[in-house]
Amino acid sequence: MRNQNQPIAVEGYPFIGLFAFIAIVFGLLGWGFLTFILFALTLFSIYFFRNPERLSPAEEGAVVAPADGKVIFVGEVEEPRYFQGPATKISIFMNVFDVHVNRFPCDGKVIDTYYNKGMFLNASLDKAALDNEQSGLLIEAEQGHKVLCVQIAGLVARRIVSYPQVGDQLKRGMRYGLIRFGSRVDLYLPAGTPVRLRVGDRTVAGESIVATLA
Questions:
Q1: Is 183 a catalytic residue?
Q2: Catalytic residue among 45, 135, 162, 183
Q3: Is residue 70 within 8 Å of residue 92, measured between CB atoms?
Q4: Would you state the pLDDT for residue 122?
Q5: CA torsion 139→99→88→143, rounded to 10°?
Q6: Fewer CB in 10 Å around end: N or C, the chain?
Q7: 90 and 71 Cβ atoms separated by less than 8 Å
Q8: How many other CB atoms sit within 10 Å of the CB of residue 114?
Q9: What is the pLDDT of residue 205?
Q10: Percent of the chain with pLDDT over 70
Q11: Could you tell me the sign of the dihedral formed by the alpha carbons of 203, 114, 47, 1, in that order?
């Protein structure tokens, strides 16, 4: 699957190449200030699309954070699509300085996917989970539980990338997609799942244990 070993996510190559090319052109023309701006954009693109190695915990039943960022919600909600009832929800908000490569939360099999077009509200708002453009993966964990992972576009983010297809068997911590330029990931677990974090905590995708499946 894409981006498993590259230090820079391949989705960033067009941005990095374009900004670097324009910076070189401006430099040859002697336009110092514009050269500096484009050079800075090149460096920021390299930084934004960074894809660091992570070591996922081996603990049985562990669910790891699918995204780097700040936890903005932890609690019980109604999830009508797949759980058709109560579920434990964890929301992680990524700002533009967080790593934006998303990681598979648990060992398991992708049993369904969906993509909904929508708006681009601030991803930290509650209504973004309903109204914003989003892409979801329904996972059957090795323990037999359903786990739903939803990438949600934000105010600036306009492109969601998700690699897995129905039937793919993935391991905890594997890269599975990204969202460009600030966004959010919601994780739905069976109701009553023990959660190991709280609102305000920061997560490291693929490493931070957020919950444990029985």
A1: yes
A2: 183
A3: yes
A4: 54
A5: 40
A6: C
A7: yes
A8: 13
A9: 96
A10: 90
A11: positive
Token reading at 98: 């967080």
pLDDT digits (tens, 9 = 90+) for 176-196: 999 876 688 999 999 999 999
Give the tokens for residue 209: 């244990």
Contact, 164 vs 39, CB < 8 A?
Answer: no
pLDDT for the residue numbered 119: 57
Predicted pLDDT of residue 117: 81
How buried is 156 (Cβ within 10 angstroms: 0-12 exposed, 13-18 middle, 19+ buried)?
middle
Q: Is 44 helix (H, G, I), strand (E, B) or coil?
A: helix
Written as six digits, the tokens of 16 are: 């990095």
Residues counted in the chain: 214
